């Protein structure tokens, strides 16, 4: 097992015509965007109702598009209004750092729009610099795309997405990697209908994050751990909640190698992780949870909870006998919903047509 050492009104709308950038105070509707794209010789932009398309990225050289996501971000206006970048299908080998607030990256679907990188500890990158995509600006959304780090199972820390964005959403996205796939670093975060794959500590960080209807998939490895949550003080409010999710092997050939998969281990002494109403397949070890390493003890300030889970890995009779482990009742589980845990009812509706419950 490799032990990680983690580090830490009018809306302006961009209209792209050839190489010239112009602004307009008019809001572009979905129909307008589709018509504009078609007139330029490109495919219509397929976005949710009410969305505004500010820029397009395409690898086929269609008029009015940027060839890379990086260039689209570089030319984004400096105001803080929502800025939607539509990324056409294709594989984009890029390393992105997004500091502008309220950026929306919208692709054409999981496995169709892919942002890829392979930085890792083995090749000299620390955890932060290994990320394929790093998001620092608040109010970020990724939708209908894949972000991956392909460094491999023995590469050490190799982040696909570092999310340091408060009030951020990933909807219908795939985050694919091995060790440290998703760094849920800071702020309130919501992941809905996503797929997250990895091996060691592949969902880690100090964010307050809720994962809903998301597939958590362990890849072939000698020892897998889903979470390494980093809440580091009694007054902090961070934690990870998995609601209506599933934990299973990434593929049939991974099932045997993924059989020793734990739901989490405490990166910090106040680590908080809860699984509610989720399906736990037989890849989940009967103990459920483990200590950080073989010599460390799990402090009572850690909180690992389970409620109303199902599946062959959900049997709690063999779970760890720690003060830190809790079998929740319905009243306790009610604290770990979108509204109660991340106050999502106050901010998720800002993102068009992102469902939650």
TrEMBL record:
Taxonomy, superkingdom: Eukaryota
First-listed, main subcellular location of the protein, grouped into a coarse class: secreted
Record-level GO BP terms: cell wall modification; pectin catabolic process
Family annotation (Pfam families): Pectinesterase
Pathway(s) annotated for this protein in UniProt: Glycan metabolism; pectin degradation; 2-dehydro-3-deoxy-D-gluconate from pectin: step 1/5
The EC number(s) this enzyme carries: 3.1.1.11
One Gene Ontology molecular-function label: pectinesterase activity
The reaction(s) this protein catalyses: [(1->4)-alpha-D-galacturonosyl methyl ester](n) + n H2O = [(1->4)-alpha-D-galacturonosyl](n) + n methanol + n H(+)
Keywords: Aspartyl esterase, Cell wall, Hydrolase, Secreted, Signal
Signal sequence extent: 1-28
Family annotation (InterPro entries): Pectin_lyas_fold, Pectin_lyase_fold/virulence, Pectinesterase_Asp_AS, Pectinesterase_cat
Active-site residues from the entry: 201
The Pectinesterase catalytic domain, residue ranges: 55-344
Subcellular localization, as worded in the UniProt entry: Secreted, Cell wall
Protein name listed in UniProt: Pectinesterase
């Amino acid at each position: 097992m490799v032990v990680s050492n983690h580090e830490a009104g009018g809306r302006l709308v961009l209209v792209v015509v050839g190489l010239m950038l112009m602004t307009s105070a008019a809001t572009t509707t979905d129909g307008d965007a589709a018509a504009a794209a078609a007139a330029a010789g490109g495919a219509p932009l397929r976005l949710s109702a009410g969305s505004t398309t500010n820029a397009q990225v395409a690898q086929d050289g269609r008029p009015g598009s940027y060839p890379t996501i990086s260039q689209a971000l570089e030319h984004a206006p400096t105001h803080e209004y929502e800025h939607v970048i539509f990324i056409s299908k294709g594989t984009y080998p890029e390393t992105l750092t997004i500091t502008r607030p309220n950026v929306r990256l919208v692709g054409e679907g999981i496995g169709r729009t892919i942002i890829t990188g392979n930085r890792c500890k083995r090749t000299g990158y620390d955890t932060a610099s290994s990320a394929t995509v790093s998001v620092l600006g608040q109010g970020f959304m990724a939708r209908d795309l894949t972000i991956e780090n392909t460094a491999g199972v023995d590469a050490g820390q190799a982040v696909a997405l570092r999310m340091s964005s408060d009030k951020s959403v990933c909807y219908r996205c795939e985050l694919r990697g091995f060790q440290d796939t998703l760094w849920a670093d800071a702020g309130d975060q919501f992941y809905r209908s996503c797929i997250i794959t990895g091996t060691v500590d592949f969902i880690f960080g100090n964010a307050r994050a809720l994962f809903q209807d998301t597939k958590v998939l362990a890849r072939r490895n000698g020892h897998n751990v889903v979470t390494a949550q980093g809440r580091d003080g009694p007054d902090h409010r961070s934690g990870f909640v998995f609601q209506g999710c599933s934990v299973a092997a990434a593929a049939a050939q991974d099932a045997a190698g993924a059989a020793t998969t734990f739901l989490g281990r405490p990166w910090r002494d106040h680590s908080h992780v809860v699984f509610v109403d989720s399906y736990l397949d037989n890849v989940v070890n009967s103990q459920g949870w483990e200590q950080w390493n073989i010599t460390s003890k799990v402090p009572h300030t850690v909180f690992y909870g389970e409620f109303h889970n199902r599946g062959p890995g959900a049997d709690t009779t063999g779970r760890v006998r720690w003060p830190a482990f809790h079998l929740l009742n319905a009243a306790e589980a009610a604290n770990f919903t979108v509204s109660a845990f991340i106050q999502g009812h106050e901010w998720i509706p800002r993102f068009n047509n992102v469902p939650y419950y």
